[in-house]
Design the sequence.
């Protein structure tokens, strides 16, 4: 038990190090440096230079789970005097008092869009449409923006978008597939914000929450060319048997678009994108490397499996437990004590009516396969602090999780069948609760192994 307690404590410390590395405010501060009128924007392989004296006005717009702290940090980096006006959408309750009054803040909900967020997007477009060739627009984008930057296309209501999102989330579709449909029923996604902003210069600062950092999928790419089509959307509908579950207005738009009755975001001309730069300032890999460094500082050998792990949470849990057992038995891919690190984003096909999310589903499934074993601890948590429909970020489990639940009269298989992972894990104290973190770079999974 002493070994398990230490593994659990170290796993939490390593997770916290990963979170700190991708803090939304710090990510912007690292990337944006102003000296006089010169602004250097540098992150990963990107480097941009902007001279503020060449621009008459500077607008700040955007949205996402890190929207408030990103805006606060950008104002700090550029100076409040540099900002002419702005509008951002942020999670309800995360409004920041240090954001200047010239930036309007609109509360938004996630994962389902809200009326207040629609109002915020309309204000952003008003500012963009009033921008001239000598104006500069900063667009701050982070995970969650697909639901927090809603503006339904003609013929689609907000209620239609809400129902579409519900059905897509429950279907087991990947985030790329979900966002493909979102873009084709939206008036801002898929690069369409740039239609309003032309001819102003636009710089997007992006915290990526998608596998492979595909820019068109982060927040459904309001400043990025879309490569999906209406035909792709209909294929996604067919794949997940959604044609009778999506609103009639949505199906009509997708079918009419596929027939060529009107153009989609993918048909926008190249000139729309000529004055836009998209810069990733943080991503899942940054968090995983920080976890790796923290684990090694604590004396663990590490194996970083990277940020491209995907699949059904329960199935991936089997694989990760198998890797842990291989470490114990054969010292491969790492010799204990070791920490196996992975990121990315898993999916859950919902068949029950319980409370939980992909991280807790993964953890509870892992606990089922760990039952009775010693020396292995599994942590899985979302970097945004919210996992699915619960108030937890994720969970941390070990070989005794099943026994602790059984003592309370609970069986893991019953709770998995209901997609009710939170209720099980919370009852035995295995959930991780962080509150909103001010960032979102997908998930962190840690498998701690000792002999």
Sequence:
């Amino acid at each position: 038990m002493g070994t398990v307690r230490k593994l659990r404590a170290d796993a939490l410390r390593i997770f916290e190090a990963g979170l700190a590395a991708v803090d939304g405010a710090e990510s912007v501060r690292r990337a944006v440096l102003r000296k006089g009128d010169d602004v250097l924007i540098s992150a990963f392989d990107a480097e941009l230079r902007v001279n503020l004296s060449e621009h008459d006005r500077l607008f700040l717009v955007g949205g996402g789970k890190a929207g408030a702290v990103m805006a606060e940090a950008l104002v700090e980096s550029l100076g409040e005097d540099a900002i002419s006006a702005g509008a951002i959408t942020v999670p309800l309750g995360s409004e920041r008092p240090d954001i200047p009054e010239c930036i309007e803040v609109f509360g938004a909900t996630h994962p389902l869009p809200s009326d207040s967020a629609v109002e915020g997007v309309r204000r952003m477009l008003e500012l963009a449409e009033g921008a001239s060739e000598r104006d500069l627009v900063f667009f701050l984008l982070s995970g969650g923006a697909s639901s927090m930057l809603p503006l339904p296309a003609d013929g689609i209501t907000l209620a239609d978008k809400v129902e579409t999102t519900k059905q897509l989330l429950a279907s087991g579709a990947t985030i790329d597939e979900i966002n493909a449909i979102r873009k084709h029923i939206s008036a801002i996604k898929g690069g369409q914000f740039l239609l309003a902003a032309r001819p102003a210069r636009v710089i997007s600062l992006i915290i990526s929450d998608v596998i492979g950092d595909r820019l068109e999928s982060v927040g459904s790419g309001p400043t990025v060319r879309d490569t999906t089509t209406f035909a792709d959307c209909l294929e996604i509908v067919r794949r997940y048997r959604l044609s009778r579950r999506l609103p009639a207005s949505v199906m009509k738009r997708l079918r009419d678009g596929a027939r060529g009755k009107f153009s989609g975001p993918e048909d926008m001309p190249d000139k729309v994108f000529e004055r836009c730069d998209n810069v990733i300032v943080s991503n899942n890999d940054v968090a995983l490397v920080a976890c790796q460094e923290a684990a090694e500082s604590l004396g663990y050998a590490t194996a970083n499996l990277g940020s491209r792990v995907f699949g059904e949470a329960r199935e991936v849990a089997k694989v990760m437990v198998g890797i842990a057992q291989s470490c114990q038995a054969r010292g491969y891919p790492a010799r204990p004590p070791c920490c196996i690190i992975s990121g990315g984003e898993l999916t859950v096909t919902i068949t029950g009516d319980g409370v939980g999310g992909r991280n807790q589903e993964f953890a509870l499934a892992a606990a089922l396969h760990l039952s009775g074993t010693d020396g292995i601890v599994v942590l899985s948590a979302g970097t945004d602090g919210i996992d699915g429909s619960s108030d937890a970020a994720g969970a941390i489990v070990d070989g005794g999780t099943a026994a602790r639940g059984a003592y309370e009269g609970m069986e893991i298989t019953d709770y998995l069948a209901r997609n009710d992972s939170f209720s099980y894990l919370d009852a035995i104290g295995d959930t991780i609760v962080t509150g909103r973190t001010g960032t979102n770079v997908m998930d962190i999974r840690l498998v701690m192994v000792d002999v």
About this structure: The longest strand covers residues 85-91. The chain has a mean pLDDT of 96.
